[in-house]
Amino acid sequence: MKTALWLYLFLFLAFFDLHAQYPILTPFAISLGAGPAFIGWMMGMYSLTHLPGNLLAGVLVDRNGSRRYIVFSLVTAGAILLLQAHAQLPWHLLMLRAASGFALAFLSPACMTLLASLSSDATEQGKYMSGHGIVHTLASVVSPAAGAFIVAKAGYSGTFTSLGWLLIATGIMAFFSVPAPARRLVRPVNSAAPPLKKQDLPSVPISDANPVSKRYYLLPFFVSCSQGVLFFELPLSQTGSNSIVSTGILLSLLSLGALVTLSLFFLNRFSPGGRIAVALLGMALCFFALASLHSIPASVILFMLGAAKGILFPAMASLFISLGGPGRMGRTFSMQSIAMSLGAFAGPVAAGQLRAVVSPYFIAFLLLMVALLLLPPINSTKLSTYSSKWNGRAA
Fold it and tell me: Is 66 helix (H, G, I), strand (E, B) or coil?
């Protein structure tokens, strides 16, 4: 539990640091002379450079453990922010954002792999993933306002400098607090002990014997697409002089709805497949209501949408833990991150191209319904068989 608390602290500081930049990056890029198209590429480049980082993170975390990659990701991202404080041209900002996307691609797979290894019990793992969601949600609620406040007091350069040193300090704390991976014990060649017989060898599943079906990764892809559609369309649908304020309030209600269901730890006792199906249906109905039922206040719909998200994401994490099993956690979570990065890129692009033809909210509704239809049948008994053979604390 001590390790989980340290991880939650590091994740909160990292997410706080990242989300605090969201209201800053666009006006900072404009101050450097960037146009709207260039800003779009700058924002998208962060997701694109996530992909090679996620691919490397999956293999390396499984092979070498999580600690070194958590430290590397935090310290490197902090150093990039220190350089970002001195950017003079839009191209400087583009390259630094690309480098930041690659560096931070290691953080989420490493942290979630370590959290999953803290217990072999499915319910406990679900609680750890719910805690991860709570930390992320709290950071997303607090940090944008904090970032705007720091900019008002210290300017862009001072803000990026302070956030960079915060990430570096977090990485140093992680180096001393996150446990190192256990070393494998190898019997000396000249040992007098008798050789192990085949029946004496531990029964450990081979990591590549049961690879996760690529069909499962369509789930985070479609979910991330729908979220990208929401973040694209919501600011455009708000009109008037207080449009920025109203958008911020609605996004806060979305996070508060997620926080409510993330705090209901008893939900982790239910099977991941059932929770995923219920959450997908609830999110799809919320998007349908945003597209067609204008008599329902948007604040109510977004709160319910957030509540469905709070059910979905811990269940999706539990599903991938069960599918991946021992030896494949890093690769499984990295593939999930890749699917979500692709969805976050494809969703707004599709919404922007089709906005004149159909409501983007209806596109999100269709995507979630397709995800629900494509969700493979989940045999909870089969998925839990690894638990009795896997000592998660050995990692």
Answer: coil
> Is residue 33 situated within a structural domain?
yes
CB of 200 within 8 A of CB of 97?
no
Give CA torsion, residues 122, 4, 131, 386, to 10 deg: -10
- The distance from CA 6 to its chain's CA centroid, rounded to whole angstroms, is 18
Nearest to 138 by CA among 277, 302, 262, 276: 262
Q: Provide CB contacts within 8 A for 350, sequence distance 6+.
A: 225, 229, 363
- Are 157 and 230 in the same domain? no
- Give dist(CA 372, CA 329) in Å, integer: 24
Residue 184 placed within a domain: no
Domain that holds residue 349: 214-378
How do residues 8-37 score in pLDDT, each as one tens digit? 887 788 778 777 776 677 678 878 887 766
345-365 pLDDT, tens digit each: 788 778 777 878 888 899 999
Type and span of the H or E element at 299? helix 298-324
pLDDT at 241: 58
Quote the pLDDT of residue 289.
Answer: 92
**pLDDT at residue 193 greater than cutoff 50:** no
Mean local confidence (pLDDT), 149-176:
86
Among 36-40, 77-81, 279-283, the range scoring the smallest mean pLDDT is 36-40
Phi, psi of 225, rounded to the nearest 5 degrees: -60, -45
Residue 184 has pLDDT above 50, yes or no: no
**Do residues 13 and 132 both lie within one domain?**
yes
Residue-level pLDDT at 376:
65
Rounded Cα distance between 140 and 142, Å, is 6
CATH number for position 145:
1.20.1250.20
Long-range (24+ apart) CB contacts under 8 A made by 276-281 are 276/219, 276/312, 276/315, 276/316, 276/319, 276/375, 277/372, 277/375, 278/311, 279/308, 279/309, 279/311, 279/312, 279/315, 280/223, 280/308, 280/312, 280/368, 280/371, 280/372, 280/375, 281/372
Q: What is the DSSP letter of 197?
A: P
CA dihedral 290, 292, 293, 295 (to 10 degrees): 90
Predicted structure pTM score: 0.65
